[in-house]
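Minutes, project check-in
Item: structure for the 76-residue chain
Input as provided by the requester:
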Amino acid sequence: MDTFIYYSPIIIAVVIFIIQQRIVVTPEELERKHRQILQEIESKFVTLNSYEDLKSQFSEIKEKIDKIYDCLIISK
């Protein structure tokens, strides 16, 4: 116990420094940053479902183009 009393000014100074420099994050700040990151991701990236839908549409378009190309080749 005497060692805690002896080092208490240093411990208090370190704790105050950590709080002032925001080295330790509170749960509220962490949640706020998490929401901000999710909003940025939603604005910059596409969802997996949208990507799969677009991919299937591209494959359908490719099949239709191939059919049209085949029809043109056969008619010549």
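Outcome recorded: The chain has a mean pLDDT of 91.
No further action items on this chain.
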